[in-house]
TrEMBL record:
This is Ribosomal RNA small subunit methyltransferase G. GO terms for cellular component: cytosol. Belongs to the methyltransferase superfamily. RNA methyltransferase RsmG family. The keyword S-adenosyl-L-methionine applies. It holds the Pfam family GidB. Specifically methylates the N7 position of guanine in position 527 of 16S rRNA. It catalyses: guanosine(527) in 16S rRNA + S-adenosyl-L-methionine = N(7)-methylguanosine(527) in 16S rRNA + S-adenosyl-L-homocysteine. GO terms for molecular function: rRNA (guanine-N7-)-methyltransferase activity. It comes from the Bacteria.
Amino acid sequence: MNNKQQLQEGLQALGLTLTPSQQLLLLEYVALLTKWNTTYNLTALRDESSIISHHILDSLTLLPFVKDAKTLMDVGSGGGMPGIPTAVCRPDLQITLLDSNTKKTSFLQQAVIELGLDNITVAAGRVEAVHDKKVDVVTSRAFAELADFISLTKHLLNENGYWAAMKGVYPYEELEHIPASVAVVKVEKLHVPMLDAERHMVVMKPKK
């Protein structure tokens, strides 16, 4: 199975309908990750097939959780996951990719230009130093434990904002340490096509 077929099969399994140009952008992004990986150390994965399953399809499980959002921040974005795949699928969604590693933000800038994604802004710096932006959704993939994620990013949420934290196995211990000021809306088990690993989405919001 080639990359295009793998991506199409994965999208179908996720129930996503993308235009041919969106599919092409996702494959171009995979090629960019592979090309720049040796220089910027963006992912431990070396082959494009694994990048499609572990990064692209995995990132796209975020889409149902941001369907009403207009602004999103991907904290600790690294190589651009889940922000870049989300931006390709949701050109109407304004996305900020934030990372403190300037090597990685250089790659992100390059990727955004090459892919022509004008709904993305790249920001370099520590999350606690960002004070000029408030968004509908703050997301991250394995950025920090839930309690730390909340305390480091709560200032980024607008008045109706919420967190969508992408996790691996069910985070029993982390959920026990969530502050009393935060409500867990849901913890949903995700199915990532072609990925034999547990994934969960934790949706949380500040209590009013």
